[in-house]
Structures are given as structure tokens and as C-alpha cells.
Amino acid sequence: MKHLVSLLLLASLAPVNISLAEVGGDDVLMATHTTSATGSFSSNIVATDTGILFATGQQTTFNGNEIFVYRSDDNGQTWDTWSTFSHPLQIIHYSNPSLIVTDGINDRLFLAYHASGFSQSTVRVGYTDALAATPSWTFTDVDVDNLGNHRDLALTSDSKTFNSYYLYFAFTKWNGTGYDMYFARSTDQGSTWETPYAVMSTAGISYTHPDLDYGTRLHLVAQSSNAGDTATRYRNAGFRVLNSGSWNAEIVHGSETDGIDQLNARVAANGSDLSAMVAWNQNENIHWRSTTDAGNTWTPAAVSNGYLLYGLASNSDSYAMAIKPSGILGIYISEPTSSDLQGLWLTTPMIGGPNDWISGSGTAGLSFNPSENEEWMATIWYDPSYAGDPGFYFDGEWRGGPGYPNWETEPINHPSLATTHPALADIDGDNDLEIIYNDITGALKVIQP
To answer: Per the record's keyword annotation, is Signal included, yes or no (predicted)?
Structure first.
């Protein structure tokens, strides 16, 4: 059984009322919607090759479900609300945003979402110029259902920088007894979409929560359920998914009849080789499998106990997971220490603090910034336990270190967060000192400067 290498070590030292630094590090508040917020949050984040960052968040308010698109022109230091999709009379509800950016023949920001109202359900994909100062959206209704029976969706492209990039779109649709998974493709940078068709449809099985990524093939995962028992189902398609015959057979990770739930399935693939990875939550632990032949064969599942999966992503040469350690409410970033995805992963604090209230599993945005040496960045909705506004927050690895401690701010006292005095030691034997301190939960924390 494999485990993440965590910088969170248990100890029974008695805490005292001293804090090493501001908890939460240099997290940036993107936007707060406290006047009408009632719950249900999700987010994701992308970046252009020139360093413009975009993020999206869904929030349930007194106006119903709303979607916000945020933009930063200074690598995440400041953010503006760039677009809002809402209806003041709750006639139309907007949900399940999926955001990607492309730098090809058309530099476009794409947004997919689900709009429901008037007993009608629509899954829609739109685009705007990613480099323009203000957005001008053009949307296409990919599928319309007069019975209001869509649910979840996912959007991706085969290359961010290839001039003639294709777009790939998966969404769920009610069949009378459960949800089937449908797929559509655009070969003209989102201007038009081919007719959707079912790619996951099995009698007695309901498919929800799709995730897509493109490596040398298109990879699709979904959460599948049978009478409430859930598993993870995977399917891939050949180069550029020419038609319905391009899809290979489904692979089931787990079982819909074993009484063990597998939730929040995610997939990531590497375009520079044949590797891909599928991860999910099971019994409050992260499980994952990987492939080195584009999904033809898979390793046995590795397990990391005491973590929940919040996001999974890849760049040109690596992978990362956004995770939440048990008993800690902040989000950590975990990266493999080698090309062996089933081997050791290094886990460090990323966004949020140990006592902040964060939104549920699977709601973090995770991506890389190509203008910052492909360093990782994340978004999450959280409510700070110290003085601060609840809302969508951002942090990136290039911002003075991953998470906390905050090296740009002098240490301050937090009466609600008791820790011991910090100490220095070479914990991992690399001849560099780490900072060690004990927090209010009784955990011994080891932080790499």
C-alpha cells in the first residue's frame, strides 16, 4: 500500500498561545458574496501562456444558482469579477461551470454551464477573446431538454497551443431511470458543435460527475451508481475522437455492488507521453491508479489514508492533486517525487488554514501557470477562522512559497490558534533545515521554507 509523503506529523505536545505566521499564507480573496450566500460552492482556474488568470465559481444565493468568472492580469495579486451569470427572479439557474483557455489560432476563454428554468434544461458552451479587456460571449446550446433533465458536465481541449485545436464536451442526461453520459465535439474552436451521442449507457447504472482530459487520447471518468452503491467508470477514445466508434470499452474501478462508495472521480493525462491517472475518494481515503500506455492497462490502486481528493491535474511533465488532510480544513498540494505515479508524493500546504471552513470535497480548482514555469495554482471557497471575509480564494506556488507560513508578513498572535515555539531541524536529510511547530490540533507540522 502506497502513501502520500506528508509534511503533517502527529504529536502530543502541549500547545501554547504563539503563532508562527498568519494562517492561510498569502491567499488572495478573489471575491466575496456574503450578502446573499447560502451555500453550494465550486470553482476552477486556468491561465493563458501570457500569464492572464481566469477562475470561475458557482454559488447558491437568493437569486438561485449563479456563476461568476474572475480575471487577474497580475499573476493573481488582484482579481476582478469579469462576468456574472444570474437571474434576479430565480427564473434561470446557472450551475456546474467548466472553464478552459486556449492559445491557438483563436485565443479564447471557454465556459460551459448548465442553465435550467421554465421546465427546460440546456447545456451550453460559450467563448470570448481571452486577451480582450472586457468579455463578449458567444454561446451555443449543445443540447436542450424540455423536461429539464441535464445535470453534470465537463469540458476540455486536445491542446492549448495547437492552432487547429478541437474541443470535447461530456454531460449527463436523464433516461427515465438514471443518467446516461453524452459526448459532443467541436472541430472549429467552439463555433459549432456536432450532434451529441451517448458514450456511457448501461441498464441499471446511473452516470454522474464526469471529468475529461486529453493526452494522446481523450480520457473520461464518471461516478457510476446502482441503487445508491457507487463506483468509478473510465473510458477513452482514440486520436481526436473521430466518431462513436473511436471509443474503447469501459473499465470499472471498483464495483456498484460491493457496498463501498467511490466518489469525486478525477482524471488527468500527460500529452508528452502515454501516461494518465484516475483518482477518487473511498472510505475517507484517496485511491488512485495510473497507466503508461494511454489507458490500455492500469496499475493496482494505491491508497493514501486520511486524505480527501479535491482536484487532480497535469501539465506537460507532471501531475498534482489538491487534497485535504483529515482533521485539517486547509487544502494541500501533493506532487509525485518521480515519474512513478504509484510511488511517493510530496504534500505541502497550499490554500486555506487548518481551522477555516472550506467547501466540500471535489470543489477546488487546480491548474498550472505556464508563465510561471508551470507552477501550480488553486482556488477554493472558504470562510476564514480569523478576521476575514468568506468567499473564493486563490494562491499559487510562485507567491512566496506554497501556502503558509507567510514569509512576507511578520509573525502575529492568533488567540484562537495555539502553537508551540518553532524549532529548526533537518527532517528529511537533505541538508536543508525545516521549521517544526505544534498547532492547536496537537499535530506537529514540518514546513519547508
So the answer is: yes
Rounded to an integer, what is the distance from CA 149 to the centroid of its chain?
A: 25
Tell me the pLDDT band of 443, cut-offs 50, 70 and 90: low
Rounded-to-integer distance, Cα 24 and Cα 429, Å: 27
CA-closest candidate to residue 419, choices 5, 19, 10, 3: 19
Closest CA to 447 of 14, 18, 25: 25
> What does the alpha-carbon distance between residue 83 and residue 78 come to, in Å, rounded to a whole number?
16
Task: Name the residue with cell 505536545.
Answer: 13
Residue 147 vs residues 91, 116, 117, 176, 286: alpha-carbon distances, Å: 15, 10, 10, 11, 36
Question: In 10 A of CB 426, how many CB atoms?
Answer: 10
Across 238-351, the runs of DSSP E, i.e. the strands, are: 251-253, 262-269, 276-282, 285-291, 302-304, 307-314, 319-325, 331-336, 345-351
pLDDT per position as a tens digit, 384-412: 776 678 889 999 988 864 444 443 444 43
pLDDT of 127 > 60? The answer is yes
Task: Please state, in angstroms and rounded to a whole number, the distance separating the CA atoms of residues 141 and 278.
Answer: 30
- What pairs with residue 379 in β-bridges? 365, 394
Contact criterion met (CB below 8 Å) for 182 and 143? yes
Domains identified in the chain and CATH numbers:
1-20+411-449 (no CATH), 27-404 (2.120.10.10)
